[in-house]
Amino acid sequence: MLSFDSGLTNALKNSNTTAFWVLKLYYNDESAFIGVSDQHRQDGSDIYYGVVANWGVYRQSLDFFNFTTTIGNMGVTLINSENSIKGGRFSDLLATNNFVNRKWELFLNTNETSTLDTAARMIATGVISGDINYDSNNVTLTLFDNTSKYHKRIPINTVASGTYTNAPANNVGKPIPMAYGDSHEKGDVGTIPTSNFDRFYNFYKGAFPAIITDKWDVQEAGSEALADSQAIHTMDNENVYVYKNGYYPTLTGTIDVGGNPEIEYRGSTASVYVPIGVSNIASESGTGSYSVANEERVGDGSFSNYASWAASSGETNNSVATMTFALPQINKLGTYSAISALVKWGTNSDFEGENSETFRYTVGSTHVDHDTITDDSETKTAIGSLYSGKTATWDFEGSLLYTLKGGSANNNHTAQIYETGAVIDFTLEDVDPHDIQELYEGGPIKTVFQPAMGPPELLEIGYDYNMYTRTITGFTPSKIDYIYYSGKGRKYGSYIDADSRNQGYNANDLIENPVFIIEDIIRDELSLGSSNIDYATFDTAGNTSSGYLGDIYEDAVGDVKFAFAQYKFINSKDMLERLGRFSFSYVFVGGDGKFKIKTLRRTDDYSSSDQTIDFYDIDLGKIGKTSLGSVKNSILVNYNHDYGANQNKSEATATDSTSQGTTVNGYNQTMKLEIEANEVLDSTTATKLAEALLAFMKDRKNTVEFTCLRPKYNHLEIGDIIDFSNWSSTLKVYGAAMTGYFIVADITKTVNGCSIKAIKVS
């Protein structure tokens, strides 16, 4: 909502007020402007020539269910007759004054106000389109908001050949990723042991891509890759991987991340961890006893719980407890170096064998023994001898037997195993370029344009020639070399604490909140500052204690966590609207030229409006409902993106059998929505997203269209929340009294009023 000054606001309340617009058309370096209005007006030294024949309308609109917005626009017709301006025609000014892609500003005034161009009376601003048409009578101007000016292809930083002279040819000109959120340690697996387990991909939330800027060469001192174009929150030199054949082997040579966001790595050695599962439990004959409990925990990827083993001695023969594990087929990833059994032992695993057979690994008739295991330790035991003749081909598939033997002299042996698996060390033969489907999401930029006269029309206003047209039937493959890392992405800058802001975040905190990921992209990728951002709307949406994001997700704002790396080119408008869709927010450029965000809430969260509309001030158009086709009662969210495999690995669902799509009021059938939420790794966030989408889309919404007969409400914008007063008691809304709150979905402003379409949100 625009903030008009009190003088203008009070004047607009008066039904006898005469309102008018003045328009500034800047040219050349924008240090000067030509002012126009409906009649000749002067404000100090500023002259507004009375050459406007038709103002047209200024229009903003949003797509309620898709969370997209159109470019605000208007058309203006100027008189172009002889001697109409500065002794000639307006078209004569085009010879020396370049208006194309220059700034325009529109101000609302009344006959009771002065200083015509005060910022608190600005109703719209933007750029003048290059489509300037004229004849001997009129000049037609098309004016757009700043959307087309601000947005660009992102990420803006690329692997430039002049900067990265040794970059792989496939990577030259490709984007340096933008990383957000947490792909580091899993928080639900207990404490990850730090001797061996902490270096393997299996125990981390994911792996972000880092583009190689100094090509791999095993003969050279090292190679380099970039995780981002700016320093990120967390990088870990033990968690850098390559992707091969469905696995993320860990690079084990020298890794240096001290140049954050640069990753420097040397050598060609790697390790891969393969979890193994229990296939059988048994004992050998003996006079002692044995037991195995919770055996399913040994290969579950968690260090929170363990399997317990016990084997006791007997008078004549010791008991033996065994577990048979199934080691899966492993694709050959390189030149074999070693294979080991890796075990995390529990606190009750302190035994000392009276012989060399206390604990044993067996394949066929060959075994490797432990004599001593200590409490709470990790062991990495070489078992390559168990696979004689098979290591070169990586033929490890089959059974691997773990054996615990009772001790002599009445010594009982116990063991606790939290996690175990096989570790294969090898040398990379090469880093293969990885095929991805590169999706260029830019293309024609279009808007619904309302000319000064005539019906609305779909208008193409530009094209980013650096980007290919999006297609759903075929993609442009591109070979790009990457390595991968588990870490944490971008940090908040000082802006989050500036301007007396207080939303619960501080500079250098990790950015996970999607609302502030949007703000960061606007700042760091679009290079805009606080003067171009209505940051108060971002704080309202994303505040940790009261943010509307928590209302729509029905969760604490701090628990709504996004994590992703944007490593493909995309138009920034597409990117912001994609993030807006998953945060139930509309991102747009307002009439004051600033980026704004408006976030929906659940229906019972609204208790006030931005503006109450008096029924006596409007001419009611029609009451209706949103399309039945927009109803969705079965939601599938695909998330947890694997960047190496280029697919999502997990899904969350939500359904409702009582929605308007499944009853006699609807189609009486399942109406599905499937979305790819590549930005979400967290299962709680994904589940809450599915549930919120269901709540939002399962039923039709009431709509109301009306015209305001005076410009009293011309400060409203899309995304504002309104309610009504003095609604006619005899005019029901589908049989019920008018109540609740509505969102402004479309607003068309004129000098004398506005027309609004609003959709009920509570």
What's the gist of this structure?
Helices cover 8% and strands 38% of the residues. The chain is mainly β and 762 residues long.
Question: How would you explain this protein's 3D organization?
Answer:
The protein is mainly beta and 762 residues long. It is built from seven helices and 53 strands. Helix 3 runs antiparallel to helix 4. The longest helix has 15 residues. The chain is elongated and about 110 Å long. The chain starts with 5 loop residues before the first helix and ends with a strand. About 4% of the residues have low confidence.
What is the topology?
Blueprint lengths: L5 H8 L5 E9 L4 E6 L3 E3 L2 E4 L2 E3 L3 E6 L4 E2 L3 E7 L23 E8 L11 E7 L4 E2 L3 E7 L2 H4 L2 E2 L23 E3 L27 E7 L8 E4 L5 E3 L5 E2 L8 E2 L3 E2 L5 E4 L3 E7 L1 E8 L5 E4 L13 E5 L8 E8 L7 E11 L5 E2 L6 E5 L2 E5 L1 E2 L4 E5 L15 E8 L7 E15 L6 E5 L5 E6 L7 E7 L12 E5 L1 E4 L2 E3 L23 H11 L10 H8 L5 H6 L10 E3 L3 E2 H11 L2 E5 L5 E5 L11 E4 L3 E8 L8 E9 L4 E9 L16 E5 L6 H15 L4 E7 L12 E5 L16 E9 L2 E8 L2
Parallel strand pairs: 2-4, 45-51, 47-49
Antiparallel strand pairs: 1-2, 1-9, 3-4, 5-8, 6-7, 6-8, 6-52, 8-12, 9-10, 10-12, 11-12, 13-42, 14-41, 15-16, 15-39, 16-21, 17-40, 18-39, 19-22, 20-21, 22-34, 23-26, 24-25, 25-34, 26-33, 27-32, 27-34, 28-31, 29-30, 29-33, 35-38, 36-37, 43-44, 46-50, 47-48, 50-53, 51-52, 52-53
Helix pairs in contact: 3-4, 3-6
